[in-house]
Amino acid sequence: MTARIDRRSILAGAGALLAAPTAGLGQQPWPQGRVLKLVVPFPPAGATDVLARLVADKLGRTWGTNIVVENRPGAGGNIGTDAVAKAEPTGDTFLIVSVGMATNQYLYQKLTYDPARDLAPITMVAMVPNLLVVNKTVPANNVAELIAYAKANPGKLTYGSSGIGTSVHLCGELFQKLTGTTMVHVPYRGTAQATQDLIGGRIDLIFDNIPQALPHVRAGSIRGFGITTAKRSPTAPEFAPIADTVPGFDVSSWFALFAPAKTPPAVIAKIQADTKAGIADPAVRAKMDALAAEPVGNSPDELGAFLQAEMKRWGDLIKEVGLKVE
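Now predict its structure.
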C-alpha cells in the first residue's frame, strides 16, 4: 500500500529545519552559526564570480553568518555543478550558474548530473546583455552593412568567443542562423584574450560582455555595432538592439542560483527572498550597474520555467548546428 504524501506536512517539516536548533551549535536557527558555501563553477574574476561574491557578501551580512565562495572550474562548469548536485540538501551548499546549465547536456557526450532532476532552482540573480563589437578594419559601419559583407564573403569573417556553448558563442551561431550568413568561430579560454586579438585585428568580431568590451569601444580601439538584447542597455544606451535589424535576435548572459534537489522548500524560499531583497539594495545595485547587470530576483518556479525554455531554445540550435565539446 502506498503512503499518501501530505504537502502541508512536508512544508511544515521544512519550516522546522529553519527554526530547529543546529546540532552542536546551540539553539540557533538555520543558517545562523553555520558556514555556508556558494560554488562558482568558473575561475575567479569573471562575471559569475563577481556576482557570486556580491550575493555572498550581502546574504552573509543579512544572516550574520559566513558564506565561502568556492571556485571549482572545469568542463564548462560541469565539475562545480556536479559537486553541488551531489551535496547534502541542507541549504548549506548552493550554486551560481549561467547558460551552461541549459546547454551542457547537449554539448557534452555525457553529464554526471541531470540539470532538471538533481538541482532545485532558487532565483535568477541578474541578466547581462552582450555587445557586438568589430575591429577597426572590418569594411562595415553598422549591423546591416556587416550582414551584407558577410553574405558577399561567406566564411571570411571570424568571430571569437569565451568558449564553445557560452552565450558569447551562441550569439554568433544565432546571428548566422537568422541572417543566413557564414562566419568562422574562434573559441578562446575567456574573452580577455579574444578581445586583445580583436583589437590587434587577428579576429573580426565578438558578441562580447559589455563590461569587457565597452571600455575599448569608448577608447576607440574597437567599434560597437549593437546590443544583443531586445531593448537598449542603460549602461550603453548609445547602441541600438541588433534586433532592430535582425528580428528575433535577443540573447542575454544570465546568472542564477540553484541548490541540490530535495533542499527543503522553506530554505529555498528564504534564500530567494533574501537574495531578491539584497540585489535591490542601492549599494549592491550600484556595483551591478557597473557590470551592466540587471537584477532579477524571480521565484523558483519562474526560474524553473525559464530554464526549460532556454534548454529548448539552445538545445534545438545546438542540434541543428551540430555543436559538440570534444
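The CA atoms of residues 109 and 167 lie 20 Å apart.
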